[in-house]
Predict the 3D structure of the following.
Amino acid sequence: MIINHPLLGPRDAAEFVHLGDAAMIDRPDWQAKDAAEAFHDYLYLRDNPAGTYRELWYHEQGDRSWLVVIRDTITHDIKNVELARDHARRRGRSR
Amino acid sequence: MADIRNSGLAARPFLGGYTQDFQTVRLTEVIDFELVHVAIAKDEIERLTEKVRAESGLDWPAPGSFSTGERDDDSDLRIVWLAADQGMIIIPKSGESLLGTGRTGLADAIGDAGYLTGQTDNWVALRLVGTGSVPALERLCPLDLHETAMPPGTAARTIMEHLAVIILRESPEQFLLLSPSSSAGSFLHAVETSILNTGGNT
C-alpha cells in the first residue's frame, strides 16, 4: 500500500503507524452537561465499516506528521490524504 | 570546584574521527559542524524565511529538501527541512557557538520568529562518497534512492536498522547521514556492514 503524503509524495505504508478512526480529532466538550456519556462514546465506540473509512496515520519513519487518510477497508484503495492539522483547522480548531 | 576548562580534558568525536576507504565508497565521520534545531513560531514562517535569507542568503528549504550555498562544498552551511514547522541548521564549526554570538549570526537574526535548540552533541554524522553509496544505502532504508525520486538537494528522515536517520543527498554519489549520537557505534556498524555486503571490500 502506498500513501501519497501531502508534503513528501508517495511513501510506503510501512513507514507509517496506523492509529484508527479519525473521529479522535473531535474531542467532546468536557464542560457539557452530557460530558460523561460523550466521553464514554468518544473513548469506546468506533465504527467498523466495510467500505470507506476515515483514519489517522502517523508518519513515524518520516516527518512525524499526523495524516487523515480516507481508505476503502475492502479494497485498500486510498481516496484522499491530508495533514491532520489542515483537517482539524477546517473543522474549526485553532491549531 | 575544579576548573574543567584548564584540566586538559578535550571532547572526542563519537567515532574517534573514523574514516575508511572501501573499494567503491569512502566512509567518514564528519566532526567539524554545529547543529541547531529550529521550531518555527506559530504563523511566522514568512518572517522567519525573510530573516534567514537576509542573514545567510539561503532560502528556508521546501518540504523534503535542504538549502545550501552556491559553492556547495563539504563544509557549507545547510538548512534541512524536517517537518512542517521544523528545520535543522548545519553550521561549519567556527570555534564559537551559534547560539551565542555565532559567526553567521543566524540565532540572533531569527529572534522570536523561531525557537532554537542546540543539538550539536546529540547527533553523529557520516558522509558516504562513491559509486557504492547508493547500493549500500538502498539496503538500509525504505526510501527510493533513484536520482529521479531523490535528486541532489533532497533531505529525508528515515530508519536504518531501527535507528532514526536524517539523510541528505549532496550530489549523485555523496550522502550526509545524521543519527543520534547515543547509538553512534551501532549506526556505524550498520552502514559498514551494508557497504561490505554490497561489494565494498576494504
Observations:
- The helical segments of chain A are 35-44, 84-90.
- Strands of chain A lie at 2-5, 9-12, 17-21, 52-58, 66-72, 78-83.
